[in-house]
């Protein structure tokens, strides 16, 4: 087997497990005699260029660390042809055979853009807390973010119970509700306002009010927790809190979890996913694969054409929708007064 020069970079929102993936790429490559070069600060690193050689000593003891040792960035400039051409020139000068790009769908668009001007192999690895990438069941970082959001909901519940308040907990996800759904299920929230289930603000308010009334009749005047995906409520979480206070006559407190959800040591599922995908990506390089994402479907590695990852919208599975409705949003339709 001919040995290759493999580049790696992390782009877009950092995700817990990116380091575990970099480690796996380096270890798998080194074992097969390949050379690994890490570019820093996402696509900016290809433009500068800003790179360093990686070997197993440099990725020792990083599996447990959040963030990314290669740093990450959003690089608006990379959308221009001139930038991608410049990156291609640098990759050719460094005699790179393949580049592995860890990031979300935006980074994959960047990867595809690069492939128009460079004839090396371009491979994406899904890493985002949002889990909004088509073609992979989960993404690196998703499980850790769920865990963080769930832990936060557990903590919020203590005050919510003590003060008999309604709490609104805003989670990340950009425009997708995967993180919100799993945080709400695992945190046993009472209601979830997610893009995939959202119809209209008035209908949602009435729905919450109805459910709250039934909940209080059954359990007394206790806590009620609502999970909300960011960027969804038309005038933001504070307006929603005010509207709910007016409607229910009770105290409502908004909590925005924010970037806390992106940090922290990756949980085991993210470390294992990241390690598996890193090894698989190196195998794909050896097989000459090009313009694909290496993801996971039904617990097996899956290769998906890069464009498909953003052209096809990832949707809730039927079972996730059923679970959300049954356990949270449609409980008011039961006769809980008996
Ligand atoms: N259409 C595009 N063409 C070229 N590069 C892109 C394109 N879309 C996104 N990128 C690059 O990918 C980076 C990360 O994308 P972004 O959507 O911010 O995060 P993520 O990859 O996590 O979804 C952008 O800052 C930009 O450098
Ligand atoms: O850190 P920034 O640039 O404010 O971006 C926030 C966004 O990044 C995320 O945390 C992660 O999104 P990406 O992985 O797609 O970059 C989103 O959930 C959130 O909307």
What can you see in these coordinates?
Helix 7 (201-219) links the parallel strand 7 and strand 8. This protein is 41% helix and 17% strand. It is an alpha/beta fold and 338 residues long. It has eleven helices and eleven strands. The N and C termini lie far apart (71 Å). A seven-stranded mixed beta sheet has the order 3-2-1-4-5-10-11, sandwiched between helices. A four-stranded parallel beta sheet has the order 7-8-6-9, sandwiched between helices. It binds adenosine-5'-diphosphate (ADP) and 1,6-di-O-phosphono-beta-D-fructofuranose (FBP). Residues 12-13, 74, 104, 106, 128-130, 172-174, 230, 262 line the site of 1,6-di-O-phosphono-beta-D-fructofuranose.
The amount of helix comes to 40-55%
Number of helices: 11
| Structural class estimated from helices and strands | alpha/beta
Q: What is the approximate shape?
A: elongated
Largest sheet: 7 strands, mixed
Order of helices and strands: EHEHEHEHEHEHEHEHEHEEHH
Strand order of the largest sheet: 3-2-1-4-5-10-11
Named once each, the bound ligands are:
adenosine-5'-diphosphate, 1,6-di-O-phosphono-beta-D-fructofuranose
Mean of residue pLDDT values: 96
Subcellular location: Cytoplasm
Keywords: Allosteric enzyme, ATP-binding, Cytoplasm, Glycolysis, Kinase, Magnesium, Metal-binding, Nucleotide-binding, Transferase
EC number: 2.7.1.11
Catalytic activity: beta-D-fructose 6-phosphate + ATP = beta-D-fructose 1,6-bisphosphate + ADP + H(+)
């Amino acid at each position: 087997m001919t040995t290759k020069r493999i580049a790696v970079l992390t782009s877009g929102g950092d995700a817990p497990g990116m380091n575990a993936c970099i480690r796996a790429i380096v270890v798998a490559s080194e074992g097969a005699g390949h050379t690994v070069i890490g570019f820093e600060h996402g696509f900016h690193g290809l433009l500068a260029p800003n790179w360093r050689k990686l070997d197993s000593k440099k990725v020792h003891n990083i599996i447990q660390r959040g963030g990314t040792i290669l740093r990450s960035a959003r690089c608006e400039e990379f959308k221009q042809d001139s930038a991608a051409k410049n990156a291609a020139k640098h990759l050719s000068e460094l005699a790179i055979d393949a580049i592995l790009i860890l990031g979300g769908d935006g980074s994959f668009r960047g990867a595809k853009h690069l492939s128009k001007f460079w004839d090396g192999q371009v491979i994406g690895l899904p890493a985002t807390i949002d889990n909004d990438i088509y073609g992979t069941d989960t993404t690196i970082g998703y499980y850790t973010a769920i865990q963080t959001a769930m832990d936060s909901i557990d903590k919020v519940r203590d005050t919510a119970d003590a003060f008999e308040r309604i709490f609104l907990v805003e989670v990340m996800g950009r425009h997708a509700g995967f993180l919100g759904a799993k945080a709400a299920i695992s945190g046993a929230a009472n209601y979830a306002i997610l893009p995939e289930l959202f119809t209209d603000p008035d209908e949602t308010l009435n729905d919450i009010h109805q459910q709250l009334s039934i909940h209080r009749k059954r359990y007394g005047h206790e806590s009620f927790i609502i999970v909300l995906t960011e960027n969804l409520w038309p005038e933001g979480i504070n307006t929603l809190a005010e509207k709910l206070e007016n409607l229910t006559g009770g105290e409502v407190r908004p909590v925005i979890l924010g970037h806390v959800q992106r940090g922290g040591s990756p949980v085991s599922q993210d470390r294992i996913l990241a390690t598996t995908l890193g090894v698989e990506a190196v195998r794909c390089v050896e097989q000459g694969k090009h313009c694909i994402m290496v993801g996971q479907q039904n617990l097996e590695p899956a290769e998906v054409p890069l464009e498909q990852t953003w052209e096809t919208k990832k949707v809730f599975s039927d079972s996730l929708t059923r679970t959300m409705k049954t356990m949270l949003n449609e409980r008011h339709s039961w006769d809980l007064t008996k």
